[in-house]
Write a structure and sequence with these properties.
This protein is mostly helical and 69 residues long. It has a domain at 7-49. Helices cover 71% and strands 0% of the residues. The chain has 3 helices and no strands.
Length: 69
């Protein structure tokens, strides 16, 4: 899928707005901010999921039993 620069700006705007909120408030915010734009909502939700994964990954280092030797 190809996006115009203003599409990316809107994705970033909604993502940053959601990221600034508590996790429990993000879903409602994204739904409201996307106002029925399914493609926008999907992209923002994917970015938020990746952000959450990266954040949790960095907070929980590998245990010594799973570390490469």
């Amino acid at each position: 899928m190809t996006f115009r620069p203003d599409d990316w700006a809107r994705i970033k705007e909604v993502f940053e707005g959601a990221r600034a909120l508590a996790v429990r408030d993000r879903t409602a915010y994204v739904a409201s901010a996307c106002a029925g734009d399914v493609a926008l909502r999907q992209h923002v939700e994917r970015l938020l999921a990746a952000y959450q994964f990266a954040n949790s990954f960095l907070k929980h280092p590998q245990s010594s039993s799973t570390r490469a030797q």
